[in-house]
Amino acid sequence: MLDLDASECFDRMVGVLVSIINRCRGSTPEAAACQAEVVHNMRHFVKIKGGVSHNHIKRSQSLKFEGNGQGSAGSMPGWHGHTEIMHDVYKQMMPGCTIESPDSRIALTQWLLSFVDDKKMFLSFQSDASHEHILNTSRLCLQTW
Fold first, then answer.
1. Within 10 A of 69 (CB to CB), how many other CB atoms are there?
2. What's this model's pTM, rounded to 2 decimal places?
3. d(CA 128, CA 98)
4. Which of 35, 43, 53, 126 is most buried per CB count within 10 Å?
């Protein structure tokens, strides 16, 4: 099992792409466009121990901020849309981990266990697999994700 905790994923979701994903997942054009517009026009304030800044920074041609931010209610639908597609592709490319009952009548294959941007990646290998093969496959899994 590989444990991956990606950082700042919500801040990297591109608003236009989130809008397209949400439309593909059944959002109305108006709702998807509204969310994309909010992300595009969002103002960012700096918060430190001493308080919150009075001035803000905003997306521009030279400063391309993206993403909803992890605390935003609009983040989860966009993140789910991103990761659902990534899960499907990952499943097609990676071997996963297969667990069988002792009589081999029941088998379960699992690839990922996800919670927001945290992933547990499952792999299984034959008992005679070389260390090099295990490391190369593990590296490929991390790079693919």
1. 15
2. 0.60
3. 16
4. 35
Q: Contact 10/67 with Cβ under 8 angstroms?
A: yes
pLDDT, averaged across the chain: 82
Distance CA 145, CA 138 (A): 11
Tokens 């034959």 correspond to: 126
CA 129 to chain centre: 30
Query: pLDDT-derived band of residue 61, with 50, 70 and 90 as boundaries?
Result: confident
Q: 29 φ, ψ to 5°?
A: -55, -40
The residues near 120 (Cβ < 8 Å, ≥ 6 apart) are: 1, 2, 3, 4, 112, 113, 114
- Tell me how long the chain is: 145
What is residue 95's predicted lDDT score, i.e. its pLDDT?
83
Q: How far is CA 58 from CA 11, 30, 94, in A?
A: 14, 23, 39
Q: How many CB atoms lie within 10 A of CB 98?
A: 12
Copy the structure tokens of residue 28: 């109305």
Residue 24, both tokens: 């593909």
Check residue 44 and give its pLDDT: 78
Mean pLDDT over 89-116 rounds to 87
- Residue 34 token pair: 């509204």
